Structure formats: C-alpha cells, structure tokens
C-alpha cells in the first residue's frame, strides 16, 4: 500500500491542512473508487478537487486511458503527484480555481471526489450565501446552515453527471446526520440511482489519524431503484470490496446488505439495517465479524428497545472512536 501523506499529529501544519481540506485518499480505496467509476471506459474522468491527483493515478493504474480533468484551488498540492508517478501532462486540464464558483461547460461521464471537508464555521459569509443559492437551485430548498462545503461539492457534481454516468464520492459520515439529512438524501435518491454506500470499521478506517468517519457513495445517473448495496468494510482489502461491487460473494473483509432506500434513509445511511441493530441488542456478545446476523422480529419504530438501539447506533456511527453497533452491549 502506497502512503504519500504523512500527517502532522497537531499544531500549525495540521491546522493548515484542515483549512485547505487537504487529506489525501489512501491508495487502496482510491483504486476501488477509480476502478468502479471508469469501468465502462468513459472518455473523461473529472475530479473537482484534484489535490495530488490521487484518483488520476488510481484510474491510470486501473487501465483508464481517457482525459483527466478537474479543479484545484491550491496547486501546491500537485507536488505530491510526482510521488504517485504523475507528470505535468496529467494536470494539464486541471483548472486552478474554486470549483463551487466555476461555470462548467458540459457534463461528465465519470466523476470522482474526496472533496475538501470544510465545516460551516470555517466558511466566509459570502461563501455561505453562494452555497445557499446552490442548494436552492439544485434541490429546490435551502440546507441547514451548518452543512459543510463537501455536501455542496456532491450536489454540484451530481448535476454535472452525464446521462448514464457514474459518480464515486468519499464523504464524512456526518452527511447522514442532522435534521435535514433525510430530506436531503430522499431528494438526491429520487433524482439519481444510489448503487452502493460503504461504511468502514475502525480497522479499515480510510483516515485512521483523523477524527472523522468516512463513507463512500456510488451513484449513477439512471432511473432510481428502491434497492441498493450497503457495505461494511472491516479490512483494508480493495480487491474484496471491488469483488462485492462486481456481484461476487462477500468475504470476511466486507459484509454486504441489500437494503431498501426507504428503510435506510429513515434509519440513517451510515447505520446498519434496523433489524441488525435489534439483533445486536438481543445477542450482545456476538463476535466482531463481518457476517450477516439473523433478522429480528421486533419492529424498530415502536419498541422501547428501538430508542436505545437508535441511541447506541448514533453514538457508534457518528463521531469519534466507535464500537461495532451490532456488538454494542445491551446496557443503558
Ligand atoms: C480532501 S483533498 C482530496 C485530494 C485528492 N482528490 C485525494 O483524494 O487525495 C481536497 C482537495 O480540494 C482542494 N480544494 C479546497 N477547496 C477547493 C475548492 N473550493 N475548489 C477546488 N479545490 C479545492 C484542496 O486543496 C485539496 O487538495
């Protein structure tokens, strides 16, 4: 596994990375995302926040031979691209500009991103106003003022996706939390087809040194479907993830759940299916394995246990160090 970014543990250097949103995607995960998004041999791959070109390098490694395009606000990031085997030609069609404010000439058949994770309190007032207008025009309603920049990258990229195109996004799990999240996901999933949502156990965390739970979302611009794949990744095994996405059997490295959108958006896309949570509360000492648990008979919405399950899951899947929710102890 190639690691090109050594994160400073704290201090000014680390703060500078946070301000610019400069955390590079690990190569094992970039390869999974780039492989999936370029599977149909699109002519162009677009990344709205190129950084060192992590996804460009991963796509080339996966055999992509088309054009590389994108945006980057801080071109100093390209310096790390040489370590990935990229050259000036690979960045030739990257515009040095703010992706959010840019007018884009056309749509793209393949879009991939790990957008800058910049929280609302770091955004300037005029930027907030621009983002508010962006949500209003793309969704038909404004989003909660506490939504971070990364959500607007997703929104704008979805609208730039060509018919039949593929989009892969790496986002913090907080996009599935908060009061406006279910309205947001319902609207997105009415317009685009959610193919898969991936969550990561601690042992497979894409950013182990950063206090953020990551998720990956795969979308196509096709008629939406009610079912999608929900993956729990337990080991940093990119081949095992790609195999599951290709319809092969899951392994110990990845567990797979076929979920209904209505259930998943209601439960929260970052959380396991509701019946798995109840199972965990009924069988609290199950080993920490990436395996299917037997469905429970209890309804999630009406029992007092459900409230505890919801709380346990919220705690485990939102912030900070997490315990696997399906082995959360059944004590309040
Ligand atoms: C999380 S990094 C991801 C980089 C790379 N794609 C990867 O996955 O490793 C996000 C990148 O977006 C850049 N960035 C921040 N704000 C931006 C903006 N408004 N428009 C375009 N790029 C931006 C940052 O400089 C950073 O390089």
List keywords for this structure.
31% helix, 2 domains, binds S-adenosylmethionine, 6-stranded mixed β-sheet, globular, alpha/beta
Class of secondary structure makeup: alpha/beta
SS elements, strand count: 9
Radius of gyration: 19 Å
Shape: globular
- In spatial order, strands of the major sheet run 4-5-7-6-8-9
Strand content: 15-25%
CATH class call of the largest domain: Alpha Beta
CATH topology of the largest domain: Rossmann fold
Low-confidence stretches: 285-289, 291-332
What value does the average pLDDT take? 82
**CATH superfamily heading of the largest domain:** Vaccinia Virus protein VP39
Describe, in plain words, how this protein is organized in 3D.
The protein has 332 residues and is an alpha/beta fold. Helices cover 31% and strands 18% of the residues. The protein has ten helices and nine strands. The protein has helices at residues 12-20, 27-37, 54-61, 125-139, 149-159, 181-191, 238-245, 261-267, 274-282, 304-317; strands spanning 44-47, 67-72, 94-96, 108-113, 161-172, 193-200, 214-220, 227-233, 254-260. Helix 3 links the parallel strand 1 and strand 2. The model is unreliable at 285-289 and 291-332 (pLDDT under 50).
Protein topology:
Elements: H1 12-20, H2 27-37, E1 44-47, H3 54-61, E2 67-72, E3 94-96, E4 108-113, H4 125-139, H5 149-159, E5 161-172, H6 181-191, E6 193-200, E7 214-220, E8 227-233, H7 238-245, E9 254-260, H8 261-267, H9 274-282, H10 304-317
Parallel strand pairs: 1-2, 2-3, 4-5, 6-8
Antiparallel strand pairs: 5-7, 6-7, 8-9
The chain binds S-adenosylmethionine.
């Amino acid at each position: 596994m190639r690691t090109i970014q050594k994160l400073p543990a704290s201090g000014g250097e680390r703060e500078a990375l946070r301000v610019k949103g400069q955390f590079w995607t690990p190569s094992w995960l970039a390869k999974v995302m780039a492989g999936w998004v370029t599977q149909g041999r699109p002519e162009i791959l677009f990344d709205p926040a190129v950084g060192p070109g992590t996804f460009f390098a991963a796509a080339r490694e996966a055999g992509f031979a088309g054009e590389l395009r994108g945006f980057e606000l801080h071109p100093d990031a390209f310096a790390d691209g040489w370590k990935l085997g990229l050259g000036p030609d690979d960045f030739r069609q990257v515009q040095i500009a703010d992706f959010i404010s840019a007018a884009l000439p056309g749509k793209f058949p393949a879009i991939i991103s790990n957008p800058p994770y910049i929280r609302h309190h770091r955004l300037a007032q005029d930027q907030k106003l621009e983002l508010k207008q962006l949500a209003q025009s793309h969704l038909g309603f404004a989003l909660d003022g506490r939504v971070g920049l990364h959500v607007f990258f997703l929104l704008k990229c979805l609208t730039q996706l060509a018919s039949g195109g593929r989009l892969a996004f790496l986002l913090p799990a907080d996009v599935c939390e908060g009061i406006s999240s279910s309205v947001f996901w319902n609207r997105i999933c009415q317009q685009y087809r959610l193919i898969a949502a991936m969550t990561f156990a601690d042992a497979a965390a894409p950013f182990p040194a950063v206090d953020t739970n990551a998720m990956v979302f795969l979308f196509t611009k096709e008629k939406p479907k009610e079912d999608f794949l929900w993956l729990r990744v337990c080991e940093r095994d990119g081949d095992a993830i790609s195999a599951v996405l290709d319809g092969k059997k899951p392994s110990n490295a990845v567990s797979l759940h076929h979920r209904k959108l209505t259930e998943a958006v209601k439960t929260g896309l970052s959380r396991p299916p509701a019946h798995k949570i109840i199972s965990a509360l009924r069988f609290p000492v199950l080993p920490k394995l990436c395996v299917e648990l037997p469905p429970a008979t209890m309804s999630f919405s009406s029992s007092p246990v459900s409230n505890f399950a919801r709380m346990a899951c919220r705690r485990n899947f939102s912030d900070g160090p997490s315990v696997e929710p399906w082995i959360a102890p059944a004590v309040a």
